[in-house]
Amino acid sequence: MPTRGDRQLRAIQQAKQLAALGARLKTIHLMTGLPPRQVQRLFFPDACTIPRGRAPDSAEWYHSANLILRTDACLIGAKYRQLRNQGLAASEALILAYRAYQSVTRSPYRISLDRAFNLVSHIDGIWLARTPALTVLTCPGCGCEFIAAIGTTIHPGEACPFCKLLERFHVDHRIQASYPVRPVISMAERQLGMLALFHKLSFAAEGDTPAE
Ligand SMILES: [Zn+2]
User: Fold this and answer.
1) 96 and 63, same structural domain?
2) From CA 34, how far away is CA 87, in angstroms rounded?
3) What is the 144 CA–ligand 1 centroid distance (Å)?
4) CA of 29 to the centre of ligand 1 (A)
5) Which of 77, 142, 164, 203 is deepest in the core (most CB within 10 A)?
6) Whether residues 59 and 31 fall in one domain
7) Cα of 84 to ligand 1 centre, how many Å?
């Protein structure tokens, strides 16, 4: 049974990790339970280094985000769901899912820790959200896990951003030729393969501007 001291120590360790990942004071406060003043005193001694600006709000963001942001969000959401199903606490699952996301993409990261916090709040109905508004579904078309509004009926390819990536892939035969199709071992690998493919397809050329 963890003691009060153990819990306090764990909260401080998580706060430190979250501060390093760029989280806002409020996010750190909600995830660890530590008072914002204490977080500030411990990890932002220089007030200039406190993340500022408007915090991500609303679950609606996901539905209007461009394809690159949605596929990024799905990587985080799928990993988070997987870790939660394995029994991890929400804060731990989010930190690990965000790190996993960082390990497969390049800096500057398009999804901020605060945005990821917002997303999983709406997936689990915790922290910022009273009830779940988003869910993680498995696409019957491509097998990838993706985020959708709760109550979404799956029609193959319709709501899944990874299928949309595949569509673009099929359109560009030149790129397709340089990517021999390999057997896929696991779902995660499939998603990562899609992501690698995505980086090859230049979405910038199509005028998608990341909103974050
Ligand atoms: Zn799909």
Assistant:
1) yes
2) 23
3) 6
4) 36
5) 77
6) no
7) 22
Ligand 1 center to residue 162 CA distance, Å?
Answer: 5
Distance 157 CA to ligand 1 centre (A): 5
Report the distance separating Cα 177 and Cα 172, nearest Å: 9
For residue 73, the CA-to-ligand 1 centroid distance in Å is 14
Number of domains observed in the structure of the chain: 2
The 10s digit of each residue's pLDDT in 67-106 is: 888 989 999 999 999 999 999 999 999 999 999 999 888 8
What is the signed CA dihedral for 187, 203, 22, 31, rounded to 10 degrees? Answer: -50
* 172 CA from centroid of ligand 1 (Å): 18
- Same-domain check for residues 15 and 81: no
Question: Would you give the end-to-end CA distance of the chain in angstroms?
Answer: 41
> In which domain, by residue range, is 19 found?
1-53
Q: Does 96 share its domain with 108? A: yes
> Model confidence at 48, in pLDDT bands (50, 70, 90)?
confident
Record the tokens describing residue 211, joined without a space.
């909103």
**Mean of per-residue pLDDT scores for the chain:** 83
By the CB criterion, residues less than 5 angstroms from ion ligand 1 are 139, 141-142, 160, 162-163
- 27 and 42 belong to one structural domain: yes
Q: Within a 10 A sphere around the Cβ of 168, how many other Cβ atoms?
A: 15
30 within domain boundaries: yes
Within a domain: 211: no
